[in-house]
């Protein structure tokens, strides 16, 4: 019986370790979290105002942003904002650069952690 318990514990550790490895690998290959924001709406206390995704171009390159129409006739300077802290309808502390967001990476990813 003691031998049976030891096997159970070992397999639990192995299975748990495999889960951690799987999570690390999938986090590296996945797209960074992104929100469509109005670049002209920055508020020091809140960050950028999140707008509907259809205001952002489907392309994720930095050069693709520009004035886009939203319902109601108003224009917004919309662009994708990556890896931001989201609070309500505002996003802050992110980046407009998809490649920088990917470089930040997750657990087990290669890439630099910018110091600036």
- Which residue ranges are poorly predicted, with pLDDT under 50 across at least 5 consecutive positions? 59-65, 111-116
How would you characterize the largest beta sheet? 6 strands, antiparallel
Strand content: 25-35%
Structural class: alpha+beta
Description:
- The chain is of the alpha+beta class.
- 30% of the residues lie in helices and 28% in strands.
- The chain is built from two helices and six strands; from the N terminus they run H-E-E-E-E-E-E-H.
- The protein has a six-stranded antiparallel sheet, with no helix packed on it.
- Strand 5 and strand 6 form a beta hairpin.
- The longest helix is centred in the first third of the chain and has 28 residues, at 2-29.
- The N and C termini lie far apart (57 Å).
Topology:
Elements (H helix, E strand, L loop, with lengths): L1 H28 L4 E10 L3 E4 L15 E4 L5 E8 L2 E3 L2 E3 L5 H7 L12
Antiparallel strand pairs: 1-2, 1-4, 2-6, 3-4, 5-6
Keywords:
single chain, 116 residues, alpha+beta, six-stranded antiparallel sheet, 2 helices, 6 strands
